[in-house]
Amino acid sequence: MEKAKILLIEDEESLASFIQPELELEGYEVVWAKDGKEGLEFFEKEKPTLILLDWMLPVYDGITVLRRIRKVSDIPIIMLTARNQASDISNALDQGLDDYMTKPFEIEELFARIRVILRRLEREKRRVVSSTLEFSVLKIDLVSHKFWCKGEEIYLTPKEYALLCELMNDPEKVKSRDELLDIVWGYDFIGQTNTVDVYIRALRNKLGKYRNLIKTVRGYGYCLRKVDDNE
Q1: Three-state DSSP string of 89-125
Q2: pLDDT > 90 in the chain, percent
Q3: Residue 22 — φ and ψ, nearest 5°?
Q4: Confidence bin at 169 (pLDDT 50/70/90)
Q5: Are 214 and 167 in contact (CB under 8 A)?
Q6: Quick check: 68 and 40 in contact, CB under 8 A?
Q7: Burial class (CB in 10 A: 0-12, 13-18, 19+), 104
Q8: Are strands 221-224 and 214-217 parallel, antiparallel or unpaired?
Q9: Contacts of 156 (CB under 8 A, 6+ apart)
Q10: Residues annotated as DNA-binding region (predicted)?
Q11: Cis before 158 (ω within 30)
């Protein structure tokens, strides 16, 4: 497999000078940008496979960089942040963030998150599909990775897309949080236990008045179920 190129956008030199060689020892090519403006320039020039993006950056902050990249690309982006407020994280997920890590973090956990994303990209490259998934007013085109709710196209981040695909693959079947973590994030995912809940909340927000199609089964997990009050 071709060596993955990672764009690290981080202004804290001590952290970047630690992360970069560690990633290189893992076999990745790493490009380091020291502010948001340079990060956007490197994104255009270097064509990375994945981006590690700090939230608090000079010139353009991480959210601004995220928004600008999402206008032109679905490249996986992991946010590195000292912020841990649910509202901050939800906002970043709504802007198209794939994953996040709260500082300080263990480097092995970062490696695990990266591996999960790269495995997903590799699977998507190999997979040839020509069908759609449909449930109630929801429809996913598995070729174009587009999603519609009641005929309206809605943008999903890669993780939201994978999570909704898994639910739509087996409508009405309850999937546990652990099961969804294993399938969508990977068996070696190391992260907060509420990760699935955060992404479900983001999906529900995007479904608007059809949010109740995603049913919570208390103490277990989630499934899709038709309801009478969605029309």
Answers
A1: HHHHHHCCCCEEEECCCCHHHHHHHHHHHHHHHHHHH
A2: 61
A3: -65, -40
A4: confident
A5: yes
A6: yes
A7: exposed
A8: antiparallel
A9: 147, 164, 203, 206
A10: 130-226
A11: no
Interacting residues of 218 by C-beta distance below 8 A, sequence separation 6+: none
Question: What is the C-alpha to C-alpha distance for residues 62 and 67, in angstroms, rounded to an integer?
Answer: 9
Ordered strands of the 5-9 beta sheet? 29-33, 5-9, 50-54, 77-81, 99-102
CA distance linking residue 86 with residue 168, whole number of Å:
26
pLDDT tens digits along 1-37: 568 999 999 999 999 999 999 999 999 999 999 999 9
pTM: 0.60
Alpha-carbon gap, residue 48 to 45, rounded angstroms: 9
User: pLDDT tens digits for 187-227?
Assistant: 555 556 688 999 999 999 999 999 999 999 988 899 999 87
State the number of CA atoms in the 13 A half-sphere of 200 facing the CB: 22
97: nearest Cα among 47, 32, 50 = 50
- Rounded Cα distance between 188 and 80, Å, is 19
Of 201, 202, 169, nearest to 183 by C-alpha is 169
| Closest-CA residue to 144 (of 130, 154, 134) | 130
Contacts of 50 (CB under 8 A, 6+ apart): 4, 5, 6, 7, 75, 76, 77, 78, 114, 117, 118
